[in-house]
Amino acid sequence: MAAASSDGTPTLRAPVQFGPNPFQLKKMPLFEQNFVPTYLIRVYAPNSAGQTTGSYVIPPASNHGNVDLMQDLFTLPEQKAATRLNEHFRWGEDHEKWCNLTSWTTSLLSALQYGLYRHRGSRYIEPDLSKISLLILDTRGLPAGTFIKDLEVMEAFGAYSDPKVQANLKDFVKLRKGNSGYYFGEYLTQGDVGIKGRCVVTNMQRLIEAGLFELIPKLSDKSKWTMWPKRVLELRKPFDTLQDARTTIHAEVRDAIAIAVACFGGRWVFPVGTMLLALEPRKKEDPVIVNAFAAMFSGKYKSLLSTFFNH
What we know:
By secondary structure, the protein is of the alpha+beta class. Helices cover 32% and strands 12% of the residues. A hairpin with a 3-residue loop joins strand 2 and strand 3.
């Protein structure tokens, strides 16, 4: 088990950054440039593998004390690394006993639907929505190599997939890159990651009480809470054509800001408010949104809005 301080807080192990060799790095342009989205999201519950809090993320491997389990993927034999990645992405039956990886997403929509899925449809059902947490992490300032995009690391090892396994990593790469739309902006970390002071945490019940379903009514359909990826694809359909983008009404901006204030607060209100509004197709530089945010926030934020609403 991981060591703990006198107050019971785990003593984090030394960070394990991803370290591809120069040949691999040439095929990983985002990692090579240390491009990481400013905000990444993680949903977890008491029965989630490993430990996640507002101070740290510890994967299951850290609790075993087995050095082999805590190695950088890129130091492992290629087929072994491919197998570990495949088991992680496919939620292999036993992978959580030794997994050294933690998943994050850039998609608030995917994260919210996953939270509802954990309540009704997952094999790890959590009956209490207040115990299903949603954490948003500001990645700025964390060491280079902490995060890696799922597609880049999968393509680095996909060719080494076990040919005897039909549903192997190479096959999973095809699923993520295909036309089916099964891509959700996933990033990975490995080993223990300290995140104290860099994140904010709320829970699904609090989001709902603050007005999430009034802002995004489609999420309230309980018959769809037993679904996750397929439901996300359904919810994305309005983004397929520009014709579905409409002018925002003032009440939507008000509701998004109210949720952001109630559930996140402080410096998180602006980014979370924009994320919430971006859950529906919006016109580029929608004047209702731009003017409302310009009135509420300092001018330096105004130019950032177009990065959220470009439909």
